[in-house]
From TrEMBL:
The lineage of its organism: Eukaryota, Metazoa, Ecdysozoa, Arthropoda, Hexapoda. Residues 129-151 are annotated as: Disordered. Keywords: Cuticle, Signal. One of its GO terms (molecular function) is structural constituent of chitin-based larval cuticle. This is Uncharacterized protein. The keyword Signal applies. It comes from Manduca sexta. PANTHER family: CUTICLE PROTEIN, CUTICULAR PROTEIN 47EG-RELATED. InterPro entries: CHIT_BIND_RR_consensus, Cuticle_Struct_Prot, Insect_cuticle. Coiled coil: none annotated. Residues 1-18 form the signal peptide. Residues 129-141 have a biased composition (Polar residues).
Length: 151
């Protein structure tokens, strides 16, 4: 009798939990387009979902003009969605020989460089290169090491 009551109690708990927390519904794909990859290395795709996720990207092979075989894949795209708090999030990007470059209002930005530091950087950039290829010239030269020398 106790085991029957226990089974009924557990079954009721599962039924109540299923009503309070239904399984995740499937989100429909409203739009999907794809073109490529093409023989020239170009491609394009985009999609839109029922929960307001949008994404698209296009790419191509770019010749850097430095000779045969100096090509890179370049991509440009964007996506958007709503955060759990309901805030719209949008990000656009380029990926090329300069790396991945995202842009979006939600991304953190570094503080501006203080003017004195910027002047120092500009000054260092204006110096002629040294033998090692660096613009920074060392003022301090350590004394040569001599065995048995005490410091």
């Amino acid at each position: 009798m106790i085991s029957i009551a226990l089974v009924l109690l557990i079954g009721t708990a599962f039924a109540v939990n299923a009503q309070q927390h239904p399984p995740n519904p499937q989100i429909p794909i409203i739009r999907y387009e794809s073109d490529g990859p093409n023989p020239d290395g170009s491609y394009k795709w985009l999609y839109e979902t029922g929960n307001e996720i949008n994404a698209e990207e296009s790419g191509l092979v770019k010749n850097l003009g430095r000779g045969e075989g100096e090509e890179i894949q370049v991509a440009e795209g964007r996506f958007s969605y709503k955060s759990p708090e309901g805030t719209p999030i949008a990000l656009s990007y380029i990926a090329d020989e300069n790396g991945f470059q995202p842009r979006g209002d939600h991304l953190p930005t570094p503080p501006p460089i203080p003017p004195a530091i910027q002047r120092a950087i500009d000054y260092l950039k204006s110096l002629p290169p040294t033998a090692q290829g660096s613009n920074i010239q060392t003022q301090y030269q350590p004394a040569p090491f001599k065995p048995g020398r005490r410091f």
